[in-house]
Amino acid sequence: MNLSQEDWVNQLAADENAVILDVRTEDEFNDGYIENAVNIDINKGQGFIYEIEELDKNKNYYVYCRSGARSAKACQIMNELGINNAYNLLGGILDWEGDTVNP
Question: Choosing from 37, 65, 75, 86, which is the catalytic residue?
């Protein structure tokens, strides 16, 4: 499900069962990420599938990438793997107005 940044942030803030998932590359992730995000690179192909299959299917996943395209694909894959609550951040981190962590 695609959410605007406002909806994504509001829903995330009210969700005690939330996991933030960054599906960008490790290099992109190391350039800055949304606080508490877990990084699983969608470009890893089958490796991405394996890591997604290990996730708790009862959690709610708030997914983002650079612009929203890879995270939309990631949400689709997650749905196919039995994770029903995956929320895509429209516009990705490029449009993100909140704080980021810069390691």
Answer: 65
| pTM: predicted TM-score of the whole model, two decimal places | 0.97
Q: Give the integer Cα–Cα distance in Å for 41 and 84.
A: 20
Count H helices and E strands in the chain, helices first: 4, 5
Q: Domain 2-97 sits in which CATH superfamily? A: Rhodanese-like domain (3.40.250.10)
Task: Measure the CA–CA gap between 12 and 22, rounded to whole angstroms.
Answer: 14
> What parts of the chain have a pLDDT lower than 50?
none
Provide the pLDDT for residue 103. 82
Is 65 among the residues known to form the active site? yes
* Encoded tokens for 95: 């449009």
Instruction: Return the residue matching tokens 């009210």.
Output: 14
Per-residue pLDDT reduced to its tens digit, 20-34:
999 999 999 999 999
